[in-house]
Structure formats: structure tokens, C-alpha cells
Write a structure and sequence with these properties.
Blueprint (H helix, E strand, L loop, with lengths): L3 E5 L4 H12 L4 E5 L11 E3 L4 H8 L2 H6 L6 E5 L5 E5 L16 E3 H21 L6 E5 L4 E5 L5 E5 L4 E4 L1 E4 L6 H15 E14 L7 E7 L3 E6 L5 E8 L3 H10 L4 H12 L6 H10 L3 E9 L5 E2 L2 E3 L2 H4 L8 H19 L3 H19 L16 H16 L3 H8 L26
Parallel strand pairs: 1-2, 1-11, 2-7, 4-13, 11-18
Antiparallel strand pairs: 3-6, 4-5, 8-9, 9-10, 12-15, 12-16, 13-14, 14-15, 17-18
Bound molecules: flavin-adenine dinucleotide.
Length: about 425
């Protein structure tokens, strides 16, 4: 039976799921709501890899994503004078986490646009084939104010006062999902966020002519880290990281709730005079429109659904940028949820339980952090610590033990046993080659 489905959030997961749902059943009626007045195309470079690749291929968007890729030469570790201490190369996308730079590196905005466009193109294809039932509608500037699950399905009240009933509500509204809090309650919502004591800010500034296409990382005293990425883009992406520091952690938690200008002030104060090009980065941050900051952490939910509301992507299992698996996991989640719904037909409840069960293996693999968490990760606090860190890393780099470096740096997880996707003929995907 075709379903009436509401997807909350048009980020990465929402549009991918809308696309896959239509592949399985063109008669579904799908509504995607987004809090922003238009598609949120902010954010920096994301990558997708491993099982994200056959899914994108099956959806027919791999070539479009490839064309949108940022071409980055590799990564350099620099000192506080901006001098290169070592260089790493580009990694093959088939493996997880041997290096920072992967084959499929795309600006978040470009990726979101590809996902959104592909979901609409899928609908056009369905309509062109003569199908009259079902549909796909995006509604911007819209949120949910109330959700009632007392009957079968969910009755939703929207921010414009309208009400509608859905067979299924999919919360794809990101790491700080309001839907998750609404449906699972404050206590579960608070408990599910595994804070890592790390805060991050991402923004764009104009690129200098002299900048090459390497990513650069610099550790600074006080457990601070700056990273830049330029690739072949006309902008310089700047990433500021604040590592473990209990006092500062409490302050930053409050900062994230403040207006953007106040947030920028706090980041500027902490990163001013850090060395390298910090003055330019901070000046650029003050005027950029594309600023995104958050508390880095993971979402671990005991159950991925409650009644007919199901969590998808970061809302259900944000793995944190430190795993490099956020987008891949949201593609895998969308694929399994769409696949199980297709497979279970009328049994939506059975499909949700199967989705929960089948997600446990990729979650266990993709959410795993290097060295079992950030406790033992290596973010030097003092100047002496940085000198030692840089020297150790230099020696390791000379020995070409890249994996070791990233394991020590806690930047990416250790290599895992490969996770094999279930195959869903019901999704009519053209994988091209074996999954
Ligand atoms: C603006 C932005 C910039 C980002 N930049 C980076 C980055 O530089 N690096 C990085 O690693 N990750 C970044 N992320 C997170 C990254 O996109 C996700 O980790 C990942 O791709 C999983 O996607 P998702 O769809 O689950 O969540 P997201 O991509 O976060 O998408 C969630 C969507 O839901 C919308 N939304 C939120 N609340 C509501 C609501 N109540 N009602 C309706 N819609 C709602 C949001 O506006 C957003 O469009 C960014 C996210 C956003 C929103």
C-alpha cells in the first residue's frame, strides 16, 4: 500500500530518503519540510565513502557527485609559523580512514543540492511515465509544533497552524533534532548525546592567490587546532577545533545558544594570536555569512523509532565529524529504511523494527572512534606538548606510517572489518557492479 510520509529536514538524509522511497513505490505521497526558508547549502567539505558509493551509484547520482568533487592534493601539518612539517597524500575511497583526504570530497552545499535535485528528478521521471498517484512536495520555512501519536500513525501540527495525518514521520532534522526531543522526551534526548568535550566552528574566507590545494592542520597551545582546506575552490575553508578543557567546555556549550555575532566573538577571542594565519582567519570569520559551529558529539539512541516516528541520519546516530562517516551513515540509514519499508509492504511497524535491528552493525562500525573515544586522543595542551607532538609526527611521517599518525591524532578511526549492505531488489537500484 502506498504511504503518506512526512520527512522533517531537507539536509543530506531527508532528500536521499525521499529519492529512495520513490524508487521503491512511486505511489507514496511524500512531504519534506525544512525549517530554513530555502535549502541550507552552508557547511564545509564532507566526504562519503565505503557503502555510500554503491548507494549513490544505484541512485544514479555518482557521476554528478564526482563532478562536484573538491580536488585536494593532500594534507600538511604546519607549525605556528605556517611552515610545513609533513605531507600526506590522497586516500582511496574504498578504504575507511587511512588518510584525511578521500576521493569523494564535496562541499556540503553541493552535495545537499545534488540530493535535493535528484529526488525531484525522480518524481519528474515517475510523472513522465504516466503515474498520477502519489507525489513529492518540499515545504520550506516550516517546522512541527505538535505531534500526536494517540491513533494509528501520527497527527502533526505545523508552524503555520495546519494539521495533517501521516502513516510515518521521519525525523531527519540533524544532530540536535527537535523531533527526537518531542517524541522521546527530554530525558532520553539528553542522555543520547555523547559529548566529546570538543567544539568546532566552520566557515569560508577568501582564498589567497598563494594558497595551494593542500589541507593544512596546526596544533596550538591550549588544546586548540586550526585546519584549512582549499582544494580547487576559490575559497579557503577554515575549521577551528577546541579540544578537551572542562571550563571552556561549559562556556562553549552556552555560546552555541547565543546569536551568531556573539558566537563569532567568543571564537575570535579564543583563537586570536594563535600563530600561522590566525589573524586573517579571524578577520574572515567576522564577515563571513557561512558560519556553522557546534558541540562535537555522537548520538546513541536505545531505539531508532517510537510508534510511527523514526530517526534518520544525524538525528538518530550522528557519528561526529571525527569518524568522517556522517554522510555515509545517513546514506546507509536512508537505504536500509527505504529497503525495509519496501520489503515489509503493509507491515510498517515490522519495517521499523527491522531498520532498528539492521542498523546496529553499521552503527557499531561507523560510530566507533579511534582508541575507543577521545580520552586517549592526542591533542597537546602546552607548547612543549606541541613541539613533542610535531617531532613525533614528523618521525612517523618520515617512516610513512600515515595510519599511525591519524590513529595517534584521533582524526579518523582505525580500519574496520567491512560492513556489507543488504541487497533490496525492491528498491530497483542500478548498482552497476556488485554491492
Ligand atoms: C548548515 C549546516 C552546515 C554543516 N556543516 C558541516 C560541516 O562543515 N562539516 C561536517 O562534518 N558536518 C556539517 N554539517 C552536518 C552534516 O551535514 C551532517 O552531519 C550529515 O551530513 C548528516 O546529514 P543529516 O541530513 O542527518 O543532517 P543535516 O545535514 O544537519 O540536516 C538536517 C536538516 O534539518 C533541518 N532542520 C533542523 N531542525 C528542523 C526542524 N525542527 N524542522 C525542520 N527542519 C529542521 C536543518 O535545517 C537541516 O537542513 C552541517 C549541517 C548543517 C545543517
Amino acid at each position: 500500500m502506498p504511504l503518506n510520509i512526512l520527512i522533517i529536514g531537507a539536509g543530506c538524509a531527508g532528500p536521499v530518503f525521499a529519492h529512495l522511497l520513490q524508487k521503491a513505490e512511486p505511489k507514496h505521497t511524500i512531504t519534506v519540510i525544512e525549517r530554513s526558508p530555502s535549502l541550507r547549502t552552508g557547511g564545509q567539505q564532507l566526504d562519503f565513502k565505503e557503502n555510500g558509493i554503491p548507494i549513490a551509484r544505484g541512485m544514479g547520482i555518482l557521476d554528478t557527485l564526482k563532478a562536484a568533487c573538491v580536488h585536494e592534493t593532500g594534507m600538511q601539518l604546519v607549525d605556528q609559523k605556517g611552515r610545513s612539517l609533513m605531507q600526506f597524500g590522497v586516500n582511496s575511497s574504498a578504504k575507511q580512514g587511512l588518510n584525511l583526504t578521500n576521493e569523494y570530497e564535496i562541499m556540503r552545499g553541493d552535495m545537499v543540492k545534488v540530493f535535493y535535485d535528484s529526488s525531484i528528478a525522480e518524481r519528474r521521471k515517475i510523472e513522465a511515465s504516466g503515474e498520477k498517484e502519489g507525489g513529492l512536495t518540499y515545504k520550506f520555512d516550516t517546522t512541527v509544533t505538535h505531534l500526536d501519536q494517540s491513533g494509528k500513525g501520527a497527527t502533526v501540527t505545523f508552524s503555520n497552524g495546519e494539521k495533517a495525518h501521516y502513516d510515518l514521520v521521519v525525523a531527519a532534522d540533524g544532530q540536535n533534532s527537535r523531533t527526537r526531543r518531542m517524541v522521546f522526551g527530554d530525558e532520553v534526548n539528553a542522555k543520547c548525546f555523547m559529548n566529546m568535550g570538543v567544539h568546532a566552528a566552520y566557515f569560508d574566507i577568501p582564498r589567497l592567490e598563494s594558497e595551494d590545494s593542500n589541507a593544512r592542520i596546526m596544533f596550538a597551545p591550549g588544546s586548540r587546532m586550526i585546519m584549512t582546506r582549499t582544494g580547487d575552490r576559490p575559497i579557503t575553508q577554515v575549521y577551528l577545533f577546541l579540544m578537551k578543557n572542562k571550563e571552556r567546555h561549559e562556556r562553549m556549550k552556552a555560546v552555541h545558544r547565543q546569536p551568531l555575532e556573539k558566537q563569532k566573538e567568543a571564537w575570535a577571542e579564543i583563537f586570536e594570536n594563535t600563530g600561522w594565519d590566525s589573524k586573517r582567519f579571524i578577520e574572515g570569520m567576522r564577515t563571513t555569512d557561512d558560519f556553522y559551529a557546534h558541540e562535537v558529539g555522537q548520538v546513541h539512541m536505545p531505539q531508532l523509532y517510537n510508534g510511527r516516528v523514526v530517526l534518520l541520519g544525524d538525528a538518530g546516530y550522528c557519528p561526529s565529524p571525527f569518524t568522517g562517516m556522517g554522510t555515509t551513515l545517513s546514506l546507509v540509514g536512508s537505504y536500509i529504511l527505504a529497503g525495509e519499508l519496501a520489503k515489509h509492504g503493509n507491515d510498517v511497524d515490522g519495517a521499523l523494527q527491522a531498520y532498528h535491528d539492521l542498523m546496529q552493525e553499521p552503527l557499531e562500525k561507523y560510530q566507533k572512534l579511534s582508541t575507543g573515544g577521545t580520552e586517549s586522543n592526542f591533542y597537546p595542551a602546552s607548547q612543549l606538548g606541541i613541539t613533542i607532538a610535531n617531532s613525533v609526527l614528523w618521525i612517523l611521517s618520515s617512516l610513512k606510517i600515515d595510519k599511525m599518525i591519524l590513529w595517534v591524532g584521533g582524526l579518523l578511526p582505525e580500519k574496520k572489518d567491512a560492513y556489507v549492505l543488504p541487497v533490496y531488489p525492491e528498491l530497483s537500484l542500478d548498482y552497476g557492479e556488485k554491492v
